[in-house]
UniProtKB/TrEMBL annotation:
Organism: Candidatus Chloroploca asiatica
Protein name per UniProt: Large ribosomal subunit protein uL4
Protein encoded by which gene: rplD
Sequence segments annotated as region (Disordered): 47-97
Biased composition (Basic residues): 59-70
Pfam families per the UniProt record, alphabetical: Ribosomal_L4 (PF00573)
Superkingdom field: Bacteria
GO molecular-function terms, A-Z: rRNA binding; structural constituent of ribosome
């Protein structure tokens, strides 16, 4: 399968061969949902904590005698129904961590990439670099490619050149950057557009591919 390849100025310079094992699979919606649930659960700190009736400050002495007062019977001031009392069945620190087998995680990411590719929401470019960190350079790049809405720029590494790109996009609320090795379902589905340079595509295919990737095979237009 093929996709159009553009340069940084927004001009199509050829086509690129894509690995159908990554960008052409039948989307597994159930796995993608399970992956996102796992991500959201693992993002929870689980530090919530409440005090029960045995932990709150105060005496356990009975407030007044059981009979003879004409009032409703009462026990300890720590009882949950009293102001300042303990919390009944309240939350305590716990781990919400979930996990998925590696093959399932990778299939979920490949499903998300296939969904974005089928919707023509992935823009493949030969290279992306700026001379220095400037927000206006990122805006000019997005305008040149006609990218509107939330856009994710996938980077291949933490090189100095990529860090300039990252800083140039950091002030734009609808633009995010992510290393190709950290590609995940939540980010892929959250952003409207995915910008993927060839270097990042090579990393993606090395991680998710089946050994038949052709990220470097480019046919130049006449």
């Amino acid at each position: 399968m093929q996709a159009e390849l553009y340069n940084q100025s927004g001009e199509q310079i050829g086509t690129i061969e894509l690995n159908a094992y990554i960008f052409g699979v039948e989307p597994n919606v159930t796995l993608m949902h399970q992956y996102v649930v796992m991500q959201q659960a693992n993002a929870r700190l689980g530090t919530h904590s409440t005090r029960g009736r045995s932990e709150v400050r105060g005496s356990t002495r009975k407030l007044y005698r059981q009979k003879g007062t004409g009032r409703a019977r009462q026990g300890s001031a720590r009882a949950p129904h009293r102001t300042g009392g303990g919390v009944a069945h309240g939350p305590h620190p716990r781990s919400y961590r979930l996990n998925m087998p590696r093959k399932m995680r990778r299939l979920a990411v490949r499903s998300a990439l296939s969904v974005k590719y089928a919707a023509a929401q992935i823009r493949f470019i030969d290279d992306l670099s700026f001379e220095r960190p400037r927000t206006k350079d990122t805006i000019a790049f997005l305008n040149a490619h006609g990218l509107e809405g939330k856009t994710l720029i996938v980077l291949d590494s933490k090189s100095e050149q990529n860090m300039v790109v990252r800083h140039s996009a950091s002030n734009l609320p609808k633009v995010g950057t992510l290393l190709a090795s950290y590609l995940n379902v939540r980010d892929l589905l959250h952003y409207d557009n995915i910008v993927m340079p060839q270097a990042a595509l090579t990393v993606v295919e090395s991680i998710l591919g089946n050994g038949t990737g052709a990220a470097a095979a480019v046919s130049e237009e006449e």
